[in-house]
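Reading is simple: each integer encodes one residue's backbone shape. An example follows:

___
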Amino acid sequence: MPSCTRRPLNFIRDFGAIALLWALVIACFWKITLAGRVLAGGDVFTYFYPYWAEATRAIRAARLPLWNPYLFMGVPFLANSQVGFFYPLNWLLWLLLPAHRSLHLTIALHLCLAALNGYLWGQSSLRLGRAGAWTVGATFALGGYLGAQVEHVNQLQGLAWLPLMLFLWDKISDPSAPAEQETQSPISNPDKAAFIGLAVVIGLVLLAGHTQTAFISLVGVAIYGLGPTLWRAVRQREWGALARGAALLAAAAGLGAALAAVQLIPTWELARFSVRAGGLPFKERVSFSLSPFYLARALLPGFEAVPPEHIEHVAYVSVAGLALATAATSSLKSQISNLKSPVLLLALGLFLSLGLYNPLYLPLARYVPGFAHFRVPARWLTLYALGMAALAGWGADGSIRQRARIGWRAILAFAVALALLVGWAVLGVRIGEGGRVSWTTVAGWTAGGVLALVLLALISRAPRLAATGLMLLLISELFAAGCSLPYNRATAPQAFTSLRPAIAHLLAGEGSPPARFISMSDITFDPGDMPEIEIIYGPQLSADALYDYIVAAKHKEVLSPNLPLAFGIPAVDGYDGGVLPLARYVTLQRLFLSEEEASMDGRLRENLTAIPADRWLNLFNAGYVITDKLHDAWLDDVFYDLQFGARLLEGESATVSYVPQFEGTALGLVVHVEGGASLPDDAVIGLVEVGFGAGLTRTFDLRPGEPVTRLRWSEPAVPAAIAVRATLPQGELVVRGASLIDERTGGFQSLVISDQGRYRLAHSGDVKIYENPGALGRAFLVHEAVVAADDEEALALMQSPTFDPATTVVLAGGDSLSRSSSRSPVVRVTHYAPERVEIELQAGASGYLILTDAWYPGWRATVDGEPAPIHRADLLFRAVAVEAGQHHVVFAFRPASLRVGAGVSLAGLAFITALALSKAKRSDIMRR
């Protein structure tokens, strides 16, 4: 057939093979691509949906989102690389689709991209036919590793480009000659277009935002491209090719980094102030290592739900994939040189994924940059997954082309190896964790193993039939095993889009900017509308998907942990596992948590056992506190709110800060005495004063007795004030809760009593929302200042019982100040936007204007139009010195790091453009 006829035919066949790969991706992920459901578990719901929602709002408003005022009391937004704001494949999605739809589409697009890149790598670099290349793409895109990483969107985006990076490296090395020709240097004539392509792809991987993925990918390319060259150099003592290859890879990586500098330089600046600035604690660096006890389980497909703690340990390629790899390694002796690089990849991936359990990994994690800045060593399994996909492709290609001749010894070896793998998978989980593997999973392994053995035995007699059978078995296993991964628990879209009552209440809050909230609610409660949820969604969803919907509803009620960003509600805390939170935010937690309890990822809800002291909530502008009802109580058919309470020594008192208009006949109190065992039964342990207005007050004696005490008055009345004072000579009077009761009707009204602050119950539903009227405004003025030498001294000064953040500020710089003002200052925030804050104030004396948003380089301040230095205040916040009088203060965020990064990226883009347009020979690249 003439070549001019073959080319269109080949194109049609290639297009058909790729289209089939994409159809399989859509079929496997039909719930989020075709059915319109949402992923309501893991990081995708509580981390990526919120960030994508904010990016979507910014893109549609034509705003560059430099700052995030909603989490951690203010942090950089764009500089957080995990957002992937400059990743170009995100822009159109954000512009056209709502956040959850665009996120689902990018998952499907990048899985299709992974399949396409795997196909190109298999066909061009690995010299496979269509069937073999198709198997590479299918195994990589639909295999367990990428499927398990679907919830880590930026990681998936970066990994999708890895096969293309290997393909481009092979084109750079030698675009025409096979790699096995060891007599010729494989890097003597680098391909200019491939070099440019590799640099651009590296830039895209860096812009996707998962730095660890970029690091793993570059190490993988180095091992794949330079490993065999290093071996030849050691054997032949010729180091020129290795040096040229290393220089080429370094040049491509450097140029890619230059293209991504608009993201990398702001991220580098953020990393300097990040909790990871000095590297992670060693135990974090080796967290989520792949245990040898779980190794076999990780490499075999699963047909049961993967526990969350093991979602990073999924790397199966199916039993059929293992069989095809056996065919590749046992029969394709003539292709052994082509096998070197993929085998190096998979071996390195397994070796490094062991992490803590690998003695050679420990010095890497302790001393080597890159390893010391990332956790989850199990993520090196991506190299194993790609290497195994290549071997499976070779096995399929050899069988289809009738080059595979598998003897009984190879078949027996596969059977024994599979039996040992299955046995260790079952036994290892039992030994290591005391867990068990379900019978359905073992049955799936057995069935897959038997079918794979039969098909392997047929390869010598009916190679095409056997290869087709193995490929069909591979797809069937991957599809079945994927049903156990989190993406198949996709639930109704309302899990993300609908408003819960707590969200609606906070959105209706007054003030500009609205006060922050802090949440310390558990999510073990049942939503009050759970029967309605089950009626509406139960018939449409599986039990797992319905469960995820309910958990999502609870996450939204407590706004945990990054969901405040999705709805534009400012929070005290947040969640991040990357370059956030800021290190000083973690230090600030030590005001009310021990150093061991302070969370490196920023979350407070899971670590708080009690609401922080009111002076800290006031300083943080925490106007709302969200708690649950799990520790409240119904006693004698009356509900008692036990969230706050008071612990009183003799002479101390506590009041109900807000008494609702409720006509009652009695006051119920939940009280007991601690440390007063010797008190007589008739001792007066406290006095309760109930004011009814018009100067009328009733005083009741409290005596030891029942846990619930009812104090009655003769006529129904509306109390206006309630106070409890301890009179016991020893021990402590503990007041847990109080309720007004109308004994005529059985009605009641729970009250909030506290000795720590003034709180008012503002919302009671699935959770409770308390207002903290004592919260300081987002901006306020103080007239006393002390200067601390370092953060530890600042922390000690703030922890002093006499420190009052409403009157005194601890500065990291500036001048100390001790002055009072006869007039109360007037401070009003007139404009509040993420990157610009404007404040009007009237000061009776000189002082410091405190803005309780996080201090960070790039913020500039002006006072009445004149530049003013911003001092770091109370460890984390911003302060500007002002004199007496009326002033207009403006804070604006203009980070120099972004301008520098943009300049470097433009220079890199200009260089790439000039290189692409030049007529230089390929060999000239090495001299540039």
Notes: The longest helix spans residues 99-125.
